[in-house]
Amino acid sequence: MTKVFxxxxxxxxxxxxxxxxxxxxxxxxxxxxGQSAKGLSLGGVLAVMLVPLWIVVVTSLSTPGAVNxxxxxxxxxxxxxxxxxxxxxxxxxxxxxxxxxxxITVAGTALSMVVSVLCAYGLSRPRSLGHRLILxxxxxxxxxSGGLIPTFLVVTGLGxxxxxxxxxxxxxxxxxxxxxxxxxxxKTSAELIDAARMDGAGxxxxxxxxxxxxxxxxxxxxALFYAVGYWNSFFTVMLYxxxxxxxxxxxxxxxxxxxxxxxxxxxxxxxxxxAHTQTTPLSTQMAVVALTLVPLLIVYPFVQKHFRTGVxxxxxxx
Amino acid sequence: MSTPRSWQERxxxxxxxxxxxxxxxxxVPAVVLLLVFNYAPLFGLLTAFQYYDPLAGxxxxxxxxxxxxxxxxxxxxxxxxxxxxxxxSLVQLVLFFPIPIALxxxxxxxxxxxxxxxxxxxxxxxxxxxxxxxxxIFQQLLGGAGALxxxxxxxxxxxxxxxxxxxxxxxxxxxxxVWKEAGWGIVVFLAALSAVNPGxxxxxxxxxxxxxxxxxxxxxxxxxxxxxxxxxxRLGNALSVGFExxxxxxxxxxxxxxxxxxxxxFYYGIATADYSLGAxxxxxxxxxxxxxxWGANKLAHCFGEDGLYRR
Lengths: 318, 311
What we know:
heterodimer; A: mainly alpha; MetI-like fold; 2 domains; about 70% helix; disordered N terminus; B: mainly alpha; two-stranded antiparallel ribbon; 16 helices; 2 strands; about 0% strand
C-alpha cells in the first residue's frame, strides 16, 4: 500500500511551490531597509489577521471584573475564567444550536463527499460512455442558474420549508468541487489502474482501493470546503427556517443574539436565559463567537498542510 | 488526456454501456440533485413572466408578459440597488484587487519556507469564517460599543461608529472583504509565481538587472495571464458583491446605501412574497452577468490573453 501511495503522489499531485531555503549566488544581499520594510509589512498583515481573534478569545475567557476594568473588550488577560463557556453551554438555545450545526455539517459533508467523489470518478475515465455530455450538463449550472426565487419555490414545493434537509440538499453538489476532484482522479496513474483491472478489480474497487488512497490530499481539502460551507450557512436558515428557533444552527444564533444584540423579537430572555439580564454578558457573547470558530480551528491544521501540495493550485485552475 | 483502455480498441456503444455501467451509476446521485435543485429552478424562471400565485403554482398562474419587468424598471428602489451594486463593485475592484497581488509578491520574496508556510496558513484562515462571524468581529472592534470607540472615549476623543454610518459603508464592506478574502486571493498568484522559470531570474541578474527590474520584466509578465483571468471573473461577477454580507448589515445602515441587487430580489421577492418581481430581478441580473462574462472575455482576447475560455 505504501508503494501505491508513493507512486500515486509522485505522479498525480502537482509539485509544491519550490522551497527556496537559501539565497542564490546571483541574488543581491538584502539591505537593512528592505528587510525591515518587509518584516514590518508582513508583521502588520499577521497582526491584522490575528489580533481580532486574540481579543475575542481573551474576552471570552475573562472574568466579569476584567471586562469591567477594561470597559468592554479585553486585550490583555487580566483575570481568566471558564465561567462564560459554562454559562453558554448550559443555555438550551446554544446547546441545541451546537448540536444542529454539528449534525448538519457532518451529515451534509458526508452526503456531499459521497455524491461528489462518485460523480468525479464516474466522469474521470477517458472515453467512457456519455461522460462529455454529463460534463456539459454539470458545467452549464456554473453559468446559468434559476436564482434565488425559483430555487426557493422548488424547495418549498418539495415540502422543504421548515425542514433541515432544505439546508443540505440544495447545496449538496458543488460542480466546482466535482471538477477539482475529477481533474485529480484523471491524473491518477493509468498503469496503476490498468494493473488493478488486470487483477480483476471493477470500477468500484478501483475507486476505493486505488484512486481514493492516492488522492487523500485533495479529498481532505474538498471535504473541508464542503464542511465549512455547511457550518457557515446562515442564509438558507433565514430562507427555510426563519421562525423555528429550536432548529437554528449556531451561525443564526450568533447573528440573532450577538450581532443584532439581545433586543431581537422571539423572546430573547426566554430563549437565551442567561443570568436573567437584559443583555447577554460580553464575555458570553464572545464565547459564542469563539464557539463558532473552535471546530474550524480544530480541523484546519490537519487540512491546511495539504494546501501546499498543489491541491489549491489544481482547485483554482479547476 | 490518456491512452484508451488498452484491452479494448474502439468498442461499440452497447459494449461500452456494459463496460461503463458502474461509472454511469456513480454519476446518477449528483445528476439527480442537479436536475432537481439547479435545472428545475430554470423552469421556475417562468414566474418572471407571470403573476405568480403560490396556490396556483407555475403551471396555472396567469401570464404577465413583460409586465413584471415594466414594474421592476419603474421602481426607483431597483435602480438604487443597481447603482449601489455597481458602485460597490467598482470600489472593490480598485481597492481590493491589487492587494492579493502585492501580498503574493511580498510572500514570494520571503526566503524561509517555514515562515512562508506559517504566514500562508494564517492569511488563508479568515476565508473559512462565516460572514456572520466576520461582521460580528468588525462590529465588536469598530462598532459604537466596540474596542475602537472604547479607546477613543477613554482618551476623551471623538467617537466614530463606522458600522452604522451609511456614507462610509462602502469602506466598511470593502475592508471586511479585504480582511476575509485578500489572503485567500493570493493562492492563484502564488501558483503563477511558482510557475515562472527561475532560470529567467538568474539570466536577468547576470545581465545586471536589479531586483526591481527583475520584478517588472519577469515577475509581472508572468502574472499577466492570471491577472487578466481574475479581472474577467471579477467583471463577470460585477453584479454580485456578496449577498450575505449585505443582508446582515442592511438594517444597520439602511437600504439607501446597503441595498444590492441580490438583497433587493430577496426582500421584494420572498420577504414581501412578490415572487414574480423577485424572479424578474434575478433573471435581469443573470442575463446581464452572462453578457458581462462574454464581454470581458472578448476584451481579454483583444489583449491576447485566454481569459475564461479560449477563442
